[in-house]
Amino acid sequence: MAAKRALNIVNLKKMKQDKIPLTMITAYDYPSASLAEEAGIDMILVGDSLGNVVLGYETTIPVTVEDMVYHTRAVARGAQHTFIVTDLPFMTYHGSIDETLREVRRVMQEGHAHAVKLEGGAEIASTVQAVVQAGVPVLGHIGLTPQSVNQIGGYRIQGKDEKDARRLMEDAKALEQAGAFGIVLELVTEEVAAAISKELAIPTIGIGAGRGCDGQVLVFHDVLKYTSAYREKKFVKTYADIGDQIRSGISEYVNEVKTRAFPGEQHVFAADEKVVDGLYGKGKVDRQS
């Protein structure tokens, strides 16, 4: 079978025109990326949600550029034929343009991403434009923006009233005008997300934003319930429960080691008896001990 060819921003925009839904998954390491690519995913997002999901932080705020570069590099090795987008972490694109481009360069050159994602709307449009003009594709992100969770008062649904809906539409248009190739809509009411998707020429990718978006993104660990003490989320559908399987498998391993059921005869390597006799003396080694 011919190798899969990675999409690019031209392909992605054409998929919107052709009404072909886009699939994106958030992954953070080599095996997850490899499996996602083998399954046929269109895009992989290396999200700063790795702070919550794999590093154990309460929010995404402690995540650094070094974290993002490290995990992006691993994903890029695992999914060499998939379009990879990487989040710029908290406060790395709110200073000077030179500082922002320095961090973008690291993600692209050291992490081997194909694009970066920035959270925010009209207030970061000039930054998005500068990054695009530097030759780097940018994916926007509006609605619930986790890096601003302390400012917006928690993980709240966006677009629930007319004023907020108008703000989201203006933000989306500002990002499109600035040159973003697409926009993630997170925890936005379905009606507002659909209206934004219809208005824009660039694709929208929803997470908790309903059925009217041009594509969907979910986190690898949510899709597979790959965590301990999983917290159910209304906007997530889980397609497999590997968390229980992992826990059960490790528990069985622990039990078999404790009871000496593992390793069994089929798991060991035997030396030639002459070698054993020469080292320890004839008949002095009990292989079962």
Automatic annotation (TrEMBL):
The active site is at E186. Pathway: Cofactor biosynthesis; (R)-pantothenate biosynthesis; (R)-pantoate from 3-methyl-2-oxobutanoate: step 1/2. GO terms for cellular component: cytoplasm. It is found in: Cytoplasm. Its cofactor is Mg(2+). Pfam families: Pantoate_transf. Keywords: Cytoplasm, Magnesium, Metal-binding, Methyltransferase, Pantothenate biosynthesis, Transferase. GO terms for biological process: methylation; pantothenate biosynthetic process. Mg(2+) binds at D48, D87, E119. It catalyses: (6R)-5,10-methylene-5,6,7,8-tetrahydrofolate + 3-methyl-2-oxobutanoate + H2O = 2-dehydropantoate + (6S)-5,6,7,8-tetrahydrofolate. Its EC number is 2.1.2.11. Its main location: cytoplasm. It is an enzyme of class 2 (transferase). GO terms for molecular function: 3-methyl-2-oxobutanoate hydroxymethyltransferase activity; magnesium ion binding; methyltransferase activity. Binds 1 Mg(2+) ion per subunit. 3-methyl-2-oxobutanoate binds at D48, S49, D87, K117. Homodecamer; pentamer of dimers. HAMAP family: PanB (MF_00156). Catalyzes the reversible reaction in which hydroxymethyl group from 5,10-methylenetetrahydrofolate is transferred onto alpha-ketoisovalerate to form ketopantoate. NCBIfam families: panB, PRK00311.1. Belongs to the PanB family. This is 3-methyl-2-oxobutanoate hydroxymethyltransferase. It comes from Paenibacillus lentus. The lineage of its organism: Bacteria, Bacillati, Bacillota, Bacilli, Bacillales. The gene is panB.
